[in-house]
Design goal:
The structure holds 2 protein chains of 2 kinds. By secondary structure, chain A is mainly alpha-helical. Chain A has 7 helices and no strands. Among the domains of chain A are: about 70 residues, Cytochrome C biogenesis protein (Helicase, Ruva Protein, domain 3), CATH 1.10.8.640; about 35 residues. Chain B is of the alpha/beta class. In chain B, a hairpin with a 6-residue loop joins strand 2 and strand 3. The longest helix of chain B has 28 residues. The N and C termini of chain B lie far apart (about 65 Å). Classes of the chains: A mainly alpha, B alpha/beta. Chains A and B meet through helix 3 and helix 4 of A and helix 4 of B. Chain B: Pfam families: Redoxin. Chain B: Belongs to the thioredoxin family. DsbE subfamily.
Chain lengths: ~170, ~180
């Protein structure tokens, strides 16, 4: 009895595998292109899944389209363009370099460069002004006034020396 | 000194918070659409298929007339059952709706129309989803508004209902009259 159950289970599993569509390609190169392309195309229905990974109906349809077009001799670029016209850049995991996508490609680098420039400029400014202190004009005036009052201001000292006059 | 530096930071911080707040508010009110609608404001692409009820082959370029809706549906799609009564209502109001029966079997699709009613002037039969891909569809239901000149002027992903029709479609139709 057990043998019959195991045999029928084996038979059914073999049948279920056989019922799946077997894709036939004109060459192994085309087959490799197919598997590469479906990994590079994003499922428009799902969040962050390629059409190779997704079980959504639309992914199945898109895999079929890619398969048909490869067998019809279309290039990878032509297939990507065909899908881009219908689903926009969203369908491509690696968006093209050009147009509005330039922001996507170079935006982070530009922002990092701006941040780095600002940081370097501030550090330099801080380093060059290190010995001078960071007094505002008003504070500087107040310091000078206090020094004058206490008689320790350099100009006051000079004046005193001058007042003493020459011994001659 | 410290309070002076903090004062300097307040204005840029306020600007950033105001910008983020604005972005958040606009995102709240925006219709969520993952994929850009590539067919909007472009001529309806040419496609041809057999009609569901009959044997006639129809080409999209042959559909002429007033404003009409192109609705993608399937008997397997739960939301299509939800929006169906509203499509029946639109038909009663004289709105032309042409269907695309998407990834369905002929038998199931016909049974759907028999039990739920048929709001469509006719339906293209698209079991492999070729028309759907031509229109940039991601699932059913989706609805397009086509102008008398054959241009796609609105694309709705998801259920068509009175709110969407009155707020987005009617102004487009009335605006041109």
């Amino acid at each position: 009895m057990r043998a019959i159950i195991y045999t029928s289970l084996l038979l059914f599993s073999a049948l279920s595998i056989a019922s799946k569509d077997v894709l036939t390609f004109k060459s192994s190169k085309d087959e490799a292109r197919y598997y590469q392309l479906i990994e590079q195309l994003r499922c428009p229905k799902c969040l962050n899944q390629s059409i190779a990974d997704s079980n959504a109906g639309i992914s199945e349809d898109l895999r079929n389209i890619v398969y048909e077009k490869i067998n019809q001799g279309h290039s990878n670029e032509a297939i990507k363009q065909f899908l881009k016209q219908r689903y926009g850049d969203f369908i491509l995991y690696q968006p093209e370099v050009g147009g509005a996508n330039l922001i996507l490609w170079f935006g982070p680098v530009i922002v990092m460069l701006i941040v780095a420039t600002v940081v370097v400029m501030r550090l330099r400014k801080k380093a060059s002004g290190a010995g001078k202190g960071e007094l505002t004009d008003e504070q500087q005036k107040q310091v000078e006034q206090l020094l004058k009052q206490s008689g320790r201001h350099p100009s006051v000292t000079t004046d005193k020396n001058e007042d003493k006059g020459s011994p001659l | 000194m410290q309070s002076n530096a903090s004062k300097k930071l307040i204005l840029p911080l306020l600007i950033v918070v105001a910008l983020l707040g604005g972005l958040f508010y606009s995102a709240l009110n925006k219709e969520k659409q993952l994929v850009p609608s590539m067919r909007s404001d472009k001529p309806l692409p040419e496609f041809s298929a057999k009609v569901l009820l009959g044997t006639k082959q129809v080409n999209s370029k042959d559909i002429r007339g007033d404003y009409w809706l192109l609705n993608f549906w399937g008997s397997w799609c739960p939301t299509c059952y939800v929006e169906h009564p509203f499509l029946m209502k639109l038909k009663q109001q004289g709105v032309t709706i042409i269907g695309v029966n998407y990834k369905d079997t002929e038998q199931d699709a016909k049974r759907f129309l028999e039990t739920q009613g048929n709001p469509y002037k006719f339906s293209f039969f698209d079991p492999k989803g070729y028309i759907a891909i031509d229109m940039g569809i991601t699932a059913a239901p989706e609805t397009f508004l086509i102008s008398p000149e054959g241009k796609v002027i609105f694309h709705r992903i998801g259920e068509m209902n009175e709110r969407v029709y009155n707020s987005a479609i009617l102004p487009l139709i009335n605006g041109s009259n």
